[in-house]
Amino acid sequence: MIKKIKWNNHKILGNLELDFSKPDGSIYNTIILAGENGTGKTTILETLSAFLNLGSIECFEYINYFIDDISYTVRPAKKGSNFGFHIRTNDSDGSSKQITSNRNNNFDTIKSDDADIRHYGVSYSKARSGFNTKKVTSTTTKQIDSEKYESDTNEDFTSIKQLLVDISTQDNSEWMNITKSGTNVTFSAFQQSSKMFRFETAFNNFFGSLQFKGVDSTDPSELKVLFEKHGKQISIDELSTGEKQIVFRGTHLLKNINNISGGIVLIDEPELSMHPKWQQKVLQYYRTLFNKNGTQDVQIIVATHSQYVLTSALEDRGDVLIIAFDDNNGTIAQKRITAPAVLPTITSAETNYLAFGILSSDYHI
Fold first, then answer.
1. Is 201 contained in some domain?
2. 264-268, strands of its sheet edge to edge
3. Which CATH number belongs to the domain containing residue 325 in this structure?
4. pTM listed for this prediction
């Protein structure tokens, strides 16, 4: 997990330095970046995504991270930092190593180098208010857990629909083979090991009245991903914009979940197009996606404007760090929010003041 980061003379972030460590020296597994527009939250995610997705490290002074309780610090190499080349120091023994690998150079060394933070993968979900898709007319060979690096550059989300269609078809084929073979496996047991299970469980746990139903192949011109709402079936394209945020972004992050254990997940504005009730629980939704055997196995960094996301974050102050940003005459200033500052319990009024500087009649000092 990342412990500290410092940028180097970045045009937006300047020499910003962030520390994700707890008072006891351990590292927060979830970091919330809050603040008004123009304070660099998305830029933080974008620059981290670029390096972790095997690209440039040149905008950083250093990145400090821990793997198996060993501290490593990486700094841009004098040559090739725009390609991700860097110097890695083992902070325990002081030894250093020049790393000249990226997606196109010595890629196999990243696969085998478990001291490389990029070894563990990354998934980035950008802020979007709409999800453009085309018809899915046939099955393909798309698979889950096939990628380790995801920069979320594709504006066409047909691939998400295609993935859901393909893995549903693969599950149906596998169940048919099981029943034909006479293997003593119940459908309930099969479902829990199926490829679709992670997606169906995530959707159904978040939504109340909306439930995932499956794929409808009765129309020869289109394979439709269906949900059920109040007893009526609706296609994925007919979902509300808020519902699509959960389904499309959730699927995007879930599709390679087994490949990024120990990696980094970056989420920009998860609250878009959502009712306050959904904003209140969307952080826990994403954290639950990456919970294995009761433990969050990735580090999640979220950028948000939502007071409801912040309020929910403050409910788990042991594992969640909130950093609020402010533009101080062209310099990005920061402050940690780890507990209510004045009032004995968490309130929206205090959260708004601490994170966004908004005073109200319910909270004035």
1. yes
2. 149-150, 122-125, 264-268, 299-304, 30-35, 320-328, 331-337
3. 3.40.50.300
4. 0.90
CB atoms within 10 A of CB 321: 22
Find the radius of gyration of the CA atoms of the chain: 22
User: Strand, helix or coil at 129?
Assistant: coil
Same domain, 159 and 66: no
Assigned domain for 126 exists: no
Residue 350 pLDDT exceeds 60? no
Residues 200 and 215 reside in one and the same domain: yes
User: How crowded is residue 140: how many other Cβ atoms within 10 Å of its Cβ?
Assistant: 12
Residue finishing a domain among 237, 259, 281: 259
- Collapsing DSSP to helix, strand or coil, 67 comes out as strand
Looking at the fold, whether 196 and 240 belong to one and the same domain comes out as: yes
At 259, phi and psi to the nearest 5?
-95, -10
80-to-74, 95, 100, 114, 116 alpha-carbon distances in Å: 14, 21, 8, 22, 17
Distance CA 83, CA 97 (A): 16
Q: How far is CA 70 from CA 4, 28, 244, in A?
A: 14, 16, 40
| Largest separation between any pair of C-alpha atoms in the chain | 72
Residues 304 and 253 in one domain: no
Has residue 189 been placed in a domain? Answer: yes
Q: Which residue range is the domain that position 116 belongs to?
A: 1-121+262-365
Residue 127 covered by a domain: no
Distance CA 296, CA 262 (A): 9
**For residue 173, what are its two tokens?**
């084929």
Q: Mean pLDDT score of the chain, rounded to an integer? A: 92
Under a CB-based contact definition with an 8 Å cutoff, are residues 59 and 47 in contact?
yes
How many domains does the chain contain in total?
2
Q: Are residues 253 and 268 in the same domain?
A: no
Residue that wins the pLDDT comparison between 160 and 354 = 160
Strands (E), the chain: 2-7, 17-19, 30-35, 60-67, 70-76, 86-90, 96-99, 122-125, 149-150, 210-216, 224-229, 232-235, 264-268, 291-292, 295-296, 299-304, 320-328, 331-337
pLDDT on residue 294? 87
Last residue of a domain, one of 259, 278, 295: 259
Closest CA to 267 of 297, 304, 293: 304
